[in-house]
Amino acid sequence: MLIGFSVSNYKSFFQEQHISFVASKVARHKNHIVQHGMRKIVKAAVVYGANAGGKSNLISAIGFSRRIILYGLDKVDSAQKNFRLAEGSLEEPGVFRYQIYAGDYEYNYGIAVSYIKREIVSEWLYREESKEKEFCIFERMVGEDGISRVETDVVKPSMPERNRLKVYLDDFGQEISDSFKQQTILSDIARRTSDQIGIFAEIQRLYKELMNILIITPYMSYRNINEIASDARRREAFENLLHYFDTGVESLSTEQREMDLDKLVDGMPGPDAEQLKIRISGIVAEHPVMLQVNNQIVTLRKDENGNIIYNKLLLNHGSRQELFDLDDESDGTRRLFNLIPVLNGSSQNRLIIIDEIDRSLHTNLVRQFLALFFELTEANDTQMLATTHDSNIMDLELLRQDEIWFVERENDHSSRLYSLSKFQARFDKVVNKEYLLGRYGAIPIFRGSLDKAGKANEK
Questions:
Q1: What is the mean pLDDT of residues 86-107?
Q2: Using CA atoms in the order 45, 48, 52, 55, what is the torsion angle rounded to 10 degrees?
Q3: Which of 58, 60, 50 shows the shortest CA–CA distance to 391?
Q4: CA angle, corner 216, sides to 3 and 54, nearest 5?
Q5: Rounded to the nearest 5°, which phi and psi values hold at 398?
C-alpha cells in the first residue's frame, strides 16, 4: 500500500511536495481505513485544483518516476522536466520518494535524477524498524567526483544473503558503467533473482507493488475492450455494471471479423505497405498480437483457414437485430468501459490512479463509482488516487477529510499540495460550498474584467 509520495523539481513542483495516505483521527468512514501494524492507511486521495494548478503533474510525477524505477532512465523523455521557472533548477536533481507498506514492513524508497547528465545520482531503500530507527537495505550516491558509492546494513555474518547482495551492489559502485547509471538497483536485483526469502524477497515485494500501480489518463483506452464479451464471466460482470450505471446497454456480444490488411495499410507507400502486411501475417501465424485499429486495440489471430481475424465488441440497446459499435456510444459510456475494469479488478491489492475521474461523466455517476469502489475494496488493500474538477463529490458523506487534497499554484507558478485536514473542517460542514467560496484555496482566480474589445482591465 502507498503511505505517501513526495516530489521536487519536476514540472510545476519545485520545493518538495508530499501527498499522504496516513489516516487522521477522523472517526467517519472507518471502512475507508486499512490497519497495518500501528499505521492506519486510507483507501483514497481525491485531488482538487484549478486548471494549470498541477493535478495532472502529480500523476505524471508518479508515472515518470515509476517508469524510470522499473525500466530505466533511457526509457523516458527527461528533457525539460525540471521546474523551468527557477534559475539553476536544471542543475538540481528531480527527487521522487515513495513510502510503501509491503509484506510486513514499511519502506522508504526513492531516486534522484540528474536532468543534465541523464543519470540516477541517488537511490535508497530503507526498512522502517521503529519510529526512530531505519535499516538500510541499500543506498547509492554519486559524489561530485562522479564516483558512485553504495552502502548497506546487510553486513552481519548471520545474514546469509549478504555476499550475494554485495555482488549485485558492486555493479553500482565505484566506476559504474554507463548502462548501470540509468538503471535502478531495485529493478536490477528484482529481475536477476527469484529468491523469495530474506532481503531479496523484500525487494521483490516492493518491486511488485510499483509494478502493479495502474495509471489511467483521460484519453487512455482499455486494451482488452474487444475481448470482454468472449469470456462469459467478464461479460456478465461488465453487463451488471453497465446496468448499474444506467448506460442503456442491455447486453454485450462479440463477432468474429476478418481483418482486411489492405485497409489497414491504406495510404502507405506500396513497398512499405506490402512489407508491413507480410510482417503482420508472419507474426500472427506464430501467436496472437495486439494492434491499434481506429483508436481501438484488437487482438489479431489466425483461424483454421489461415484468415487473420479479430473479435469485435457489439452492444445491444434493446434490439438484437441492430447492434452498436463502441464508437457509436457517448463519451461517457466509452469512459465507463475504461473505468469498469478498475472495479472488476478491485481485489488485486494495487494502487489505481485516475487522472480526471469526472471526464465525460455525470456527478451522480462519479459519486456512485467511488461509493462502489469503497464497498468492493473494503476487505483488501486496493487504493485509489484520483484528480477531479467536480466539487459536487467533495462531500464528507462520501469522503473523509484526510482523503480530500488540493493543488494550488503559488505566486512563483510552482504547485503546492495540502490536505483538507489542515483546516479541521467539521463533519457537518458543506465543504464543497466552502471550497467554491475560496475557503480552501486551489480555485481559479479571475483577475479584473474584460472590456468590450476583449482587453483585460485588472483591478
A1: 96
A2: 0
A3: 50
A4: 70
A5: -110, -40
pLDDT tens track for 239-296: 999 999 999 999 999 999 888 888 877 877 878 888 888 888 888 888 888 877 766 7
Do 360 and 331 form a contact (C-beta atoms < 8 A)? yes
Supply φ then ψ for residue 100, to 5 degrees: -130, 140
For residue 266, the model assigns a pLDDT of: 80
Stated length of the chain: 459
**Residue 214 near residue 277 (C-beta atoms within 8 A):** no
Task: DSSP for 163-180, please give it.
Answer: HHHHHHHHTTSBS--HHH
Span 349-358, pLDDT tens digits: 999 999 999 9
In which residue are the cell numbers 459510456 written? 333
Please give the Cα distance from 372 to 378 (Å, whole number).
10
Ranges assigned E (strand) in 170-306: 214-216, 251-258, 289-293, 296-302
**DSSP string spanning 370-417?**
HHHHHHHTTTS--EEEEE---GGG--TTTS-GGGEEEEEE-TTS-EEE
* Average pLDDT along the chain: 91
Residue 171: all three cell numbers together:
555493479
Please state whether beta strands 44-48 and 214-216 pair in parallel, antiparallel, or not at all (unpaired). unpaired
